[in-house]
Recover the amino acids of this structure.
């Protein structure tokens, strides 16, 4: 899975988000991706993806859009050997504990699809990458990759 920004498609195909409102697709090298979430102004509950009503307060108009840092640690992961048609296999799927304290599901990239390539607690960062391709488009989504510690 290749990491992408909005302007660097090698194939010339247009990039389409897997779903609207999940993440920001960078338009330049200086522009960074981020996840789009919501935070309750009353209790601080954070939801990704964003939702219109806080499930804890159950009060209208308390959820405001926030941008998540895109940094976290692997909480759990698995190697998936079977996929839907058009998707790559094997793939690494993980639960990521973000710096903001919430845990989200994500595909992993930038690593081998093996048990030895990752470890629980490993630092990861957000990237936007291709998950599927058709004749005219690259379908892109948020993914996380291991942070290379130097």
């Amino acid at each position: 899975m290749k990491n992408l920004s909005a302007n660097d498609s090698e194939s010339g195909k247009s990039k389409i988000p897997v779903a609207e409102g999940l993440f920001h697709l960078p338009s330049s090298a200086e522009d960074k991706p981020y996840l789009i979430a919501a935070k309750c102004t009353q209790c601080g509950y954070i939801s990704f993806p964003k939702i219109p009503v806080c499930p804890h307060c159950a009060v209208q108009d308390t959820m405001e859009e926030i941008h998540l840092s895109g940094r976290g640690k692997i909480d759990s992961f698995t190697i998936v050997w079977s996929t839907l048609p058009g998707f790559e296999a094997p793939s690494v799927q993980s639960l990521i504990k973000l710096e903001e304290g919430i845990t989200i599901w994500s595909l992993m990239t930038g690593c081998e699809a093996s048990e030895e390539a990752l470890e629980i607690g490993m630092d990861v960062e957000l990237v936007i990458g291709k998950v599927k391709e058709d004749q005219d488009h690259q379908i892109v989504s948020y993914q996380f990759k291991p942070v290379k510690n130097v």
In short: DSSP finds no helices and ten strands in the chain. The domain at 14-33+70-146 is CATH 2.40.50 (OB fold (Dihydrolipoamide Acetyltransferase, E2P)). Residues 83 and 89 are 6 Å apart (CA to CA).
